[in-house]
Amino acid sequence: MNRAERDKIQSKTRQRVRLGAGAGYWGAELGAAIKLANEGAIEYLCFDQLAELTMSLLERQRLKNPEHGYIPDIVSQIEQLLPVMRETGVKIITNGGGTNCAAAMDKTLAVAARQGYGDLVVGAVSGDNVTAKLDELMREGWKFTNLDTGEDDLSEIRDSIVSAHAYIGADGIVEALRQDADVVIAGRVSDNALYVGPLMHEFGWNFEPAYVDRIGAAIALGHIVECAELVCGGMSNLWRVSREPWKIGFPIAEVSPDGSAIVTKLPGTGGILNEWTVKEHLVYEVHDPSRYVMPDGIADLTALRIEDLGGNRVHISGGRGLPRPDTLKVQIGYRDGFAAEVIYLIGRPNVLEKAARAEEIYRELLARSGIVPLDLRFDRIGVDAISGGMFDDPPESDVRECGFRIALRTRTLEEATIARAHFLRVTLYGPVGVGWGAPPAVRPVISLWPTLIPRDAVDISVDVRKASA
Amino acid sequence: MTKYFVPLHRIAMTRSGDKGDIANIGVVAFSADLYVLLKERLTPARVKQYFKNMVRGDIVIHPMDNIHALQIVMSRALDGGATRTLRFDQTGKSMSVLIQSLEIPFGDNEMALVPPRPPFELAE
């Protein structure tokens, strides 16, 4: 689809803004995003590529190499999207800048210039990294209370902290778009800010009271589409009726100035999008649905009206919100030991009895080495690996085979290394078990300390540059 | 009144996920009548009893009247959260599946509310 054809479709839906979901996780198929950019008549393609742990992983990479720290895929993704961006004018918004948006921007500009897109404008949003501010705020008396556990003494883990990133809102994205960015590379913005930002920019909304309901609606809408295929019959209760899921379509939100919208997907794509898929995703990873607290506002998801229009089109209206909070959520990642695990397969007869014996052998091996793990877990895959302890064991004669899994976490790398070496001995000293290759390498564990920071302690800045400049 | 026990998957759909060490399960009833019944019978105590070996913290259930859904929020539910837990299911995605076997008591006169198949399968 060229720009003229797109404009024709858009003129029919005048004043509406069409946003496409390009990815809901790091590793999503780019084909679905390219199809949306080509055929979706969308103005924005939004990529959510960060999970809760990702920032700490990326920060560790950046500390090793100052050129790293962003999701490396985004540069080649943008490179592949350059032709369709040129043709349709679609803009890209991503949080794949991770902990190094500046480096991601430099790489993107270099690639664009090399490909003959010297006029590409890229904006980098920073300010989410608050690691350097923790000590000062603590000295001033701010309590970084752990939202999960209630612990309020951050100094206990201070020396183990890898990174601290605030979930920032749409402010920086809006500013980059105002400065005509074609690509906005952000770090730890909230997932839905990737959608709230372009809507605020296009409709001229701001954080004044007049717009709180519309921003609330935009947050809800962002929440519905930000995981891409998860609202189109992916990972779904509708798996039986989802058509051709191997070519699942990603969602488009066609948003009106009042914040209401139609969510749809492209004809010819797989999956399914109806009132049920919208409802099943509306409840995803939400706590109090009447107060869905985000950096740009507090959305009331219980106010939404969901109307199935048929033909993979769902109308969403009634969005409401409250002003944005004075605090931002911060995810602090800290080093918290080392983990190792292994899986062996055990065959019949006497599968459960053999698994019990293997567990006994492993516990004794650990004890003989003087290792007291912080956490230790045994699973019998096929019996209780996901239901651990909820149901009684089946009769032995009903169990044909099982995976026997050992997982543990230790304080030191040395302990984990010894514990991993003992895995093999469970079968060599005991009943026959079938392994596959060597157990995975010992991995460092990063735990999360979710907390809050005053909004005014976070300084968001935007750097916008042109490829040829 | 004769009592029946209907597994949750016959009357609702579910989706679960994580934030830190908190897991949540959204339960969307297949009809308005079933929602009323679920609101009354799918209680925090019931869910806590069901997940007693997994969930160490409190359970709160929020209603969503607009979509006939209940939001079950469970603290200290993932052995420290996705990045630290030793569970095979690090992000609690399977909790949505596990809860589908939870049995809800039904009276004789209420069994007609249970659809033969989920509504999204009937529509096909």
Concise structural overview:
Chain A contains twelve helices and 18 strands.
Task: Write up what this structure looks like.
- Chain A is of the alpha+beta class and 469 residues long.
- Chain A has two domains: 283 residues, no CATH class; 119 residues, 2-Layer Sandwich (Alpha-Beta Plaits).
- Chain A is 30% helix and 24% strand.
- Chain A has twelve helices and 18 strands.
- A ten-stranded mixed beta sheet of chain A has the order 11-12-8-7-1-2-3-6-4-18, with helices on both faces. In chain A, strands 5, 14, 15, 16 and 17 form a five-stranded antiparallel beta sheet that branches.
- In chain A, α2 runs parallel beside α4 and α4 crosses α5.
- The radius of gyration of chain A is 25 Å and the shape is globular.
- The two termini of chain A are 30 Å apart.
- In chain A, 51% of the residues are buried.
- With 124 residues, chain B is of the alpha+beta class.
- In chain B, the strands form two sheets. In chain B, strands 2-3-5-4 form a four-stranded antiparallel beta sheet. Chain B has a two-stranded antiparallel sheet with strand order 1-6.
- Chain B is built from four helices and six strands.
- In chain B, 20% of the residues lie in helices and 31% in strands.
- Chain B has a single domain, classed as Alpha-Beta Plaits (2-Layer Sandwich).
- The chains are: A alpha+beta (469), B alpha+beta (124).
- Chains A and B meet through α10, β14, β15, β16 and β17 of A and β2, β3, β4, β5 and α4 of B.
